[in-house]
Amino acid sequence: MKFVWKYDIPVDDLVHTFQVPPGRVVHVGTQDRPDVVQLWMEVDESEQRNARRFQVFGTGHDIPDKSTHVGSVIAHRLPDLVWHVFEVFE
CA-to-CA distance for 52 and 44, rounded, in angstroms? Predict the structure, then answer.
């Protein structure tokens, strides 16, 4: 059965690893904290979980070659900043 799960990704220049069933990113946004971006994924929880790595980058920051953009969001309460979420592969 499929569900939508939410993951919090801190805005801290680090790669964050989550154990996630197979699925796809359906939304990237912020809710109530300026230092965290939320990632919503449609997942099939009956499937085995695998490690997936995500990182938040600011506009103009270096992005790893082995990565894929999954979404961008205007920073919560900081409209001059835009965060970009990438899935990082290595």
Answer: 15
